[in-house]
Design goal:
It contains three helices and no strands. It is mainly α. The chain starts with 6 loop residues before the first helix and ends with a helix.
Length: 83
């Protein structure tokens, strides 16, 4: 029996399209996280932990809220080599 349509091609195209849509968001999220990590040690040195967190939240908004625990863990694990 000959297939008229190969629906697997549509599924593959759909998956590729979904991945293509996700890539810019992933790139932006990674750039923002890198920027937060770059600035956080300096903010802690200048303002202390509590005020640094407040200032990061005011600058980075939702991105800070989403990533703050990752940043804290990164900062704690690399505190000796960052400063």
């Amino acid at each position: 029996m000959t297939k008229i349509f190969n629906f697997e091609q549509f599924e593959d195209a759909f998956k590729a399209n979904e991945i293509a849509k996700a890539i810019p968001e992933l790139v932006i999220n990674n750039l923002v996280l890198t920027s937060i990590k770059h600035n956080y040690p300096e903010f802690v040195a200048e303002y202390g932990n509590v005020d640094a967190d407040i200032k990061m939240a005011s600058i980075f908004g939702a991105a800070w809220e989403k990533n703050k625990e990752v940043v804290w863990q990164w900062f704690d694990s690399s505190a000796g080599s960052v400063a």
